[in-house]
């Protein structure tokens, strides 16, 4: 049933050791939307509108390290204990016992784990872009280093504090345009693997982006990202990559526990994550996620699926939520 139009509201809440900025829209059962890199709570603007219009309370935080939320300098502050505590603390601060969580990119990485770390707080999952995968047999940084010996890999390049922070931060407008375009369905991201790691930064291996607007990103929308990243820099977001070893250590007894809450998975067919991983992770999810009820692969769409294919994502989300009621 359609509900009267509402406008998003903004506020900052104290969550554990940080102040977290959140955008809220609508009233009803809560849905928490967790973005990844290089995103913001603003990345869910299309879903905020659709969810609120359908009678849900949509909540989109700027995740730890991003936007108007505090950004600790130590990568250890981005480990799984801290990021799980952020989500539990957010629910506590808002007086919410249980919510549906949706994650994209690192947000999905977190919310997959949240279903095990704080199962009593997770009603269901709507996961975008990053499928649930078996635990890596080696520490992530070791795997990244090996891949980087073969070709350029941003996962390895981002591990060292300094080079990527400076490269991306020197010109946030150019950096964001290149990243958004390179990861979209309009480009073949894996072409960056044609470059060696030696002597290259991230922007060196990405194609030039066409002028805005794009079909899924207006100049005004893009300018919002530029303004935020010009103010904050990229270090907070990069620290999520630098915490990967800590997360891996902390998940030793948790990672492969089956996820039984109702779950839907949504991704673009041209998402580099799926192109890198192939079909096996999607097949493996049936065993790792017994609660998986549906999978939506949207043709021709890249990594930023909630923006590139907003209507299809909104439809899939609302269909899934209706089945929970």
From TrEMBL:
Pfam families: Abhydrolase_1. Residues 30-309 form the AB hydrolase-1 domain. InterPro entries: AB_hydrolase_1, AB_hydrolase_fold, Epox_hydrolase-like. Keywords: Hydrolase. One of its GO terms (molecular function) is hydrolase activity. This is Alpha/beta hydrolase.
């Amino acid at each position: 049933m359609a509900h009267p139009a509402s406008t998003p509201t903004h506020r900052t809440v104290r969550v554990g050791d940080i102040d977290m900025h959140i955008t809220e829209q609508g009233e009803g059962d809560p849905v928490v939307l967790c973005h990844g890199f290089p995103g913001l709570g603003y990345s869910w603007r299309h879903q905020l509108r659709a969810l609120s219009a359908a009678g849900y309370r949509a909540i989109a935080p700027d995740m730890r390290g991003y936007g108007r939320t505090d950004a600790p300098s130590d990568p250890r502050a981005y480990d799984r204990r801290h990021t799980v505590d952020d989500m539990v603390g957010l629910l506590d601060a808002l007086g919410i016992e249980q919510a549906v969580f949706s994650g994209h990119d690192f947000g999905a990485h977190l919310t997959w784990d949240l279903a095990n770390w704080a199962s009593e707080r997770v009603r269901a999952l709507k996961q975008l872009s990053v499928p649930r995968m078996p635990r890596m047999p080696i520490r992530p940084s070791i795997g990244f280093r090996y891949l980087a010996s073969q070709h350029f890999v941003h996962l390895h390049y981002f591990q060292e504090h300094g080079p990527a922070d400076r490269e991306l931060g020197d010109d946030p407008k150019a950096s964001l345009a290149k990243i958004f375009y390179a990861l979209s369905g309009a480009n073949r991201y894996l072409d960056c693997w044609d470059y060696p790691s030696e002597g290259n930064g991230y922007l060196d291996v990405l194609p030039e982006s066409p002028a805005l607007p794009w079909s899924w990103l207006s100049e005004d929308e893009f300018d919002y990202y530029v303004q935020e990243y010009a103010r904050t820099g990229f270090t907070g977001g990069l620290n999520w990559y630098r915490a990967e070893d800590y997360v891996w250590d902390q998940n030793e007894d948790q990672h492969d526990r089956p996820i039984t809450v109702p779950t839907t998975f949504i991704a673009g067919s041209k998402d580099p994550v799926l192109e890198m991983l192939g079909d096996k992770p999607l097949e493996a999810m049936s065993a790792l996620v017994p609660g998986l009820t549906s999978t939506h692969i949207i043709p021709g769409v890249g990594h930023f699926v909630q923006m590139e294919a907003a209507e299809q994502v909104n439809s899939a989300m609302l269909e899934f939520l209706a089945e929970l009621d």
